[in-house]
């Protein structure tokens, strides 16, 4: 796709700047570390997607493409399209895909014209939480899904179920007082409230909305040093608000958290997600 022709909802301009800028580039550079961090969720998510031979699957907010690639690899005859805002991550995805029947495009899934009933399944691993207009985005995805088709997405539950975010925001928050990201705005908790998600999906043309709670450990690296470096980079948008002294203190606090959770299997913190499923 010609990047100059990228059509986005103007309300997603900030999201595009972030994900198609330095933040997305960081994710691209550290794709393997991110994939390893959420690896324990992958079997349940792939089973819930339940892709069948000849099905057409759309991976929304596919990032560097691991879900799309794992699905196509495990389902001979299926084809997958991955869309994301981040050109840097899409480059990684294309490189990883080799000759598999999976393609990757830069697109704003909230408004992109996918074609009517172009897919049997809409899938996503934490890629649907950043839309500025949830109902518009999920209606657009519904229009791209054949009648009877499926939506399967992994999203984070609330902060009370996510030790990793509680601990990381807590460590930085001792230097930079802040409220956790709200549940009604784009961000990690935007699809954490089942009532809100049900309302959005019903309003967007989906039915049979179902939530399965999954709880897994996330692994942030083999030791406290590498885990701290990974999260300092990923949360640079918070560190940028601090002066040098504050940055050093927040980094030291994070390192303490990582050290407290480091063990033989690496730095492990608890997390909780929903696998949300729905039908067209
Ligand atoms: C937390 S990352 C997850 C990436 C990937 N699904 C994975 O599991 O590795 C969220 C992704 O959603 C993408 N994203 C955010 N808003 C989007 C939009 N409106 N359309 C397409 N992708 C979007 C971001 O660029 C980012 O790569």
CATH fold-type name: Rossmann fold
| Overall geometry | globular
CATH homologous superfamily placement: Vaccinia Virus protein VP39
Helix content: 40-55%
User: Helical element count?
Assistant: 12
CATH-level-2 architecture? 3-Layer(aba) Sandwich
The hetero molecules present are: S-adenosylmethionine
> Low-confidence parts, pLDDT < 50 over ≥5 residues?
none
Mean pLDDT: 95
Let me know the number of strands: 8
- State the CATH class: Alpha Beta
Q: How large is the radius of gyration?
A: 18 Å
The largest β sheet comes out as: 8 strands, mixed
Q: What count of structural domains?
A: 1
Would you tell me the structural class of the helices and strands?
A: alpha/beta
Helix and strand pattern = HHHHEHEHEEHEHHEHHHEE
Cα distance, first to last residue?
Answer: 28 Å
Percentage of residues in strands: 15-25%
Keywords: Methyltransferase, Transferase
Domain Methyltransferase: 57-149
Pfam family, one: Methyltransf_25
GO molecular function, one term: methyltransferase activity
